[in-house]
Amino acid sequence: MHVICALVHSIVRIWGIVNQFVVQSTASNCLLTKPFRRAIICADALFVCKSSLFGMPMIDERHQELLAQVASLYYEAEKSQNAIADELGLSRVKVYRLLKEAREESVVKILIDWPIGRDSQLEKDIAQVFHLKKALVLKSDMLEETSALRRLGQMTARYLDLILEDGMTLTVCLGRSTYEVINAMTPTYRAHINVAQAMGSIPFAVQELDSPALARQLAHKLGGKVLYLPSPLIATSLEASTVIRNQPLIERTLNASRNADISLVGIGGLDPSSSRYVQAEVIQAEEMIRLKETGAAGDLGGQFFTLNGELHPCELNQRMIGLSLEEMKRIPNTIAVALGKKKSLSILGALRTGVIDVFCTDNSTAREVLGLNETF
């Protein structure tokens, strides 16, 4: 009788703790079961059967064995709840409850081994040399460039998730690197994080790489509204660019971008064979070559700059519909994402503009840029 009373007392106390944790988690909009969903990337499940607590049985041995069996079939064998129900002669609802109980009773413990490594020394070096608030450097020695860019997007997305706050405005520029970041973002419990399109549109064959699509996708994930910039990326003349910028809808979005809390940008190179502008036929390959010959090193948000980080004196910068370098500098937290040794000189020039606050890259690119900084 004493054993039964002690067991009941322990269960009541444990239930109280669990219940309190659920209430606290709910209050902070954090779902208790979320970290244990099967969709977690790169999670390794470790199953440990506990038979006692403080020397007294927690649950009946046969019931505990059933919990371990159901958990093993679900996590290790990767069987669906319906398949487990059929195999064990249980209802699907019963299987769901057993899985939930297995987690609550510590029959199942899940250890998450994140696959993304960072180089802390290179982060310190890059941040110190270029006077950045922060640098994030991915260890990518064993990755080819496409996989590295995807991992870089995941790493940057996690950082964004840490700094985003309710009510913020995030402005975003087009590009493959920013696409990878947005693609890696997960829907958040935060509300009213608005997204402003920072550049006009270009007719990409892959629409996911265009500013409106990026802004819409990000706003959907962050629970806010999107402010579109209904304009071509490049006006046909200086006069036309003035008329376009003065349109009420365009002026509203550009003002929202200027006053954004965070800006997410990529860094463009000048190689005509890989230039998104050349691919979209908004800039001719010959014009990109002339830009390089006259001292341009790359572009940030459609603004071409020199290797010294100064604005390049080309007419294209004035015809671009978007933010100027000076306006970008005034955004308190500009995050630039780029990698690749072919872009190293472009990245070096971008880091010298004073626009970038947080730079996200991989270790091979970081080493290359630091070396070039000693030479040029």
Share of helix, binned? 40-55%
CATH architecture of the largest domain: 3-Layer(aba) Sandwich
Query: How many strand elements?
Result: 13
DSSP helical segment count: 16
Largest sheet: 9 strands, mixed
The protein's oligomeric status is single chain
Q: Beta fraction of the residues?
A: 5-15%
- Write down the Rg: 26 Å
Number of domains: 2
The overall pLDDT, averaged over residues, is 83
Order of SSEs: HEEEHHHEHEHEHEHEHHEHHEEHHEHEH
What is the level 1 CATH name of the largest domain? Alpha Beta
Q: How is this fold's topology laid out?
A:
Blueprint: H1 2-27, E1 43-47, E2 52-53, E3 56-57, H2 61-76, H3 81-88, H4 92-104, E4 108-112, H5 120-129, E5 134-138, H6 145-163, E6 169-172, H7 176-184, E7 194-197, H8 211-222, E8 226-227, H9 238-245, H10 248-258, E9 262-268, H11 276-279, H12 285-293, E10 296-300, E11 303-306, H13 315-319, H14 325-329, E12 334-337, H15 344-351, E13 358-362, H16 363-375
Parallel strand pairs: 5-13, 6-7, 6-9, 7-8, 9-12, 12-13
Antiparallel strand pairs: 1-4, 2-3, 9-10, 10-11
Helix pairs in contact: 2-4, 3-4, 5-16, 6-7, 15-16
